[in-house]
Structure prediction request, 362 residues.
Amino acid sequence: MASPQSAKGAAVWGLALILAATLFPFDFSLDEQISIGDEFSPGKAIMPRGNDLIIGADAAFGQAFRGRIGALRICRDPLTPDQVAKEAQRTLEVQAEVRSTEPCAASYSFTESSGTVLSDDSGNENHGELIGGPQWTRDGGRGALFFNGSGQYVRVPNDPSIDIGGHSISISMLVALEDSPSDGVIVAKPWRRGVMAPPYYQYGVEFGKLERSVDFYFADTRGRLIGPFSVRPPIGTWIHVAFVYDGAVRGYVDGRELLGTNISQPWDLLDIVGNLLLFLPFGFGLAAVVQSRGMPPQRAILLTIALGAALSLGVETLQCWLPDREPSWIDVAANSASSAIGAGLHLAASSAVLKRLKRFVS
Prediction:
């Protein structure tokens, strides 16, 4: 049977191995505001940033959009597929009332025909100022703004209603896309004011010229860009495009769902195996220590599991401040199981040694 000194050594070495393997490199972002609940959540939470909303360009007023926008809605709540389909049908009908029937943070129907103000009909008064001369147009009775790709845009001052964070958002729009020499930002809440730098957007929708796709992005609470999530609508005609995020991202064109994806981290078999091996020395050594002090095997295993789970949870919580690490309940479960396996191996080994000793003595 292992001596108390060797058992303690195994437990200490196991603990050192765990800390080195899970917390290296020690680049803690302690100046960041971290929500531990969000970090352990299966989905990613959007990070509020407090910058103005821009329609038709990015934060540096580059990546100018070329095309027409005839409706735009931004909602905090996730729209259902039925709500998206009804909005698409209503918006695509030229003579229909284009105002949203769903509560929105901002709703633009583009019914104006002149002036430098884009009116918000959501009731939140998130009105926008036209800058650079985007042109009011009429297309078969439908009002719209035409952006020529030269840097024209609409600026909407920041307001808590559009500074959307958390685990849900819906963005829908009626657009007529045109080919352009570069990517074009249709609507965006920039990450930084006046600078197009990673992660670029709190939330935003672009037209990607290479894939001819409409792409949805957002940044999470760690400042990591999530996306693109893309749909490929036709070019040169009026289309209704919508993106809904509620832990998963769904993309729609003319009310039909063309994209559905879960953004949770997939199970990584190698990572799980690594976590199952990582706590073996700790469990083995700790079981040896407590059993050497007379604790019954069943209680030794339970105590080892409890302490292994507590240690793993503490390590995973610290990883909330490590930009390159992902805390996970799966890791906590695997580490707890690893502690139990280590304890079981010690008890099995101890039992085998005792049996050999008894046979030798007899």
